[in-house]
Amino acid sequence: MKRLYRGIFSFMLMVSCALQLGAQDTRIVPADEIPSSLRDAEAVKLTGTWETSNFSELKMALGTNGIGASNTVLAKVDLSEAFIADWTSLYVSAGFTSNGVFSGCKALKEVVMPVAEEAAHFTSFEKAFANCGALEKVDLTGCVNVETFNNAFYGCEHLATVDFGTNTAAVESSAWSSAFENCTALTHVTLPAVFVPASKVFSGCTALQEIDWTACQAVEVPVFYADMWDGVELSGVTLKLDHPQYVLFKADASWSQLNLEDLNPEPSTEFTVDASDIPSSLKKATVITLTGTWDSSAFNLLCMALMDNPAFGTSENTVLQKIDMSAVKVVEGTSLCWQGLSRYGIFRNFKVLAEVVMPAAEEAAHFTDFTMAFQNCTALKTIDLGGCSGLTSLEMAFQGCTSLEEADLSSSSALVSVDNAFESCEALASVVLPVQFPMGKNTFAYCNALKAIDWTAFEGTEVPEMSKTFFMGIDDLKAVTLSLKYESYKLFSADEDWSELNLYNTEPEKVTDFVVDASDIPSSLKKAVTVTLTGEWDSDAFNLLSMALGNNGGLFVTTNATLVTLDMSRIKVAENTPLWRQGLKEYGIFNNCTALEKVIMPTAEEAGHFTKLNKAFEGCTALRDIDLSLLTGATDVEAAFKGTAIEKADLSGCTSLGSTVGAFEGCAALQEVILPACFVADNYTFADCTGLKLIDYTAYTDTQDAPAVKNNTFSGIDDLKAVTLKVSGLNHELFEAHKIWSDFDIEYDASGISGMKSDGKGKPITVYTMDGRYVGTYAPGTDWRSYLPQRGVYIVDGKKMIRK
């Protein structure tokens, strides 16, 4: 039957063609008899059954198959009586090129499409009418199976409206690329459900006014390509959508740049509620704007209008998304926690409430109790608490608000109870605390996203005692940065609990106390008042420390007048570590630290690894407190303590001492010195030590020669008789006979128990031999030694003494 139908139809066409032979405007072009040239045809009417290859012949006949070729004569194409073969494409190969059938037909103004049944057989319109600058309209409603419109109407400068609403096949983004690029007259477009936004699809459509995409059924916002709108004023384009899609697009920052129109809006769910006229039900409200003067009772009525049985912990509101209180006045003492037969928060369990706009700070200050106020508002992201200066309770206020990202409590210094305030706020990343903030139970428990706490407002003089569950459930407290001003930073740093957080000093310019690890020595410590060393230190590390302190810069003498305390008690010292360097100049590591008062040495084991100390503390004129007895491995100490304020130098453990030239020269405050057996006084060792009172040299036990001493060892000390020299009773005569040592006030003790120096006063002296035989009793002041029968050891008044 179909073949018979087509035969009859062809016969009628032939008759019609015969009647139109005299009409010169329209050329009848049967599919099986396509002329070799139609370049002069102003209008063509296609007949017969057309497939892709026929359209390829037609393109060559029109003369547009060459590169850059065009036809400036053809004004109308009529396909209304044409049959279209299945899978026919209007993108054809013609000669050596491939292009759209009618591309380059500059004068083509009108295209009459086949009936819908036939138009449905088209599959590709790629470049079909590209650069048909005169084309004004084309009916595409029957083209349901076209799979691509890529560049289909590129450059159609007079095309005004297009309706693709019925298409079901162009489902790929590439199918729409540049489809209407530079269609400068295009004002209205109807898009199908399958439309996929693509690059440059509406680029250059400067007259575009309306896009009807009510067929859109997207459940996610489509990709928004910026270049798809090049040259188009987005706010001037109305995009019509069905309600569900309108909601989606409206929430998108890119698509909402267009003028979106909801063609099927739902009844309004946004309400303005005055405190004097609260509706009995607001259960469908998505947005509420409050006006008037609100107190605790009014807020409770609002809660009951929004939710059934708010006292039941299981009651929920799953509709309200936003509440705006920016225009309200709040009565002083207003609570968002209702105290009736049972206690509940006004907005507890509002599951989709995402935004709360608070009253002005002056009004927000009148709120007092937020107990459970927003508990389990799992969608809540934004609420400004900065003006809530009157709050006394945040107990469970935001417990379970899993979307809340920040909380500014900077003005809430009246808070008393904060138990469970932000427990399980899994998205909470930033908190600002007020001057005073109580340490509640579970206040920030399980806030695993917490990264920053700003407590720069803290002004206390004591660290608040942290509740054991304050940060419960946060696995790594070092990931939480607690920002404090410098004085507070020092307090919190000394606290065992708070120091588990990453403490950050917001006033680095005020820092004077530094902890310096050998592996991370700052480039400058010139502002340091206290330096505490940690880690493993060797000569190179100490040299870097000296450079940082700035006391050894350049070729000339430089000083550090800031450092007061150096604490080395926690360090390990590499073996054979000197506190001296030889470079372009010779210097001690801490020389010329003129404000240095106290040096806390490492443990004896570690301090014993220090060796050469030449100039180590030379010029540290304030240095008074340092335990030299721990320097058991010290070798040369030339000028090591020259010019310091040291009062006592216990060198008794320094059994490896070498050169002592100028070791204590100019130490005017030095009063007492304890020397080891190996000590050799050298040039200016104690020169100008004008305060010297006692030298304990009892460790020297050589009985052959007095220890060496230079003429200038004690230069500058006017009266050496004012200095007591304690020596061993075994060799005191050596000192007494020495030309320099004899100038001291010598005391000796042969046994190491007690020395004896008779001053001619006191009780009689009793002498026994070592085996207990009585020798005699002698009057005070008597030279009892001359009465002893022979040389040897005797017991004199209960003490061992030797006569040589």
TrEMBL record:
InterPro entries in UniProt: LRR_5, LRR_dom_sf, Surface_bspA-like
Signal peptide bounds: 1-23
Name of a matching Pfam family: LRR_5
PROSITE patterns named among the record's database cross-references: PROKAR_LIPOPROTEIN
The entry's keywords: Signal
Protein name per the record: Conserved domain protein
Organism: Paraprevotella xylaniphila YIT 11841
Lineage: Bacteria, Pseudomonadati, Bacteroidota, Bacteroidia, Bacteroidales
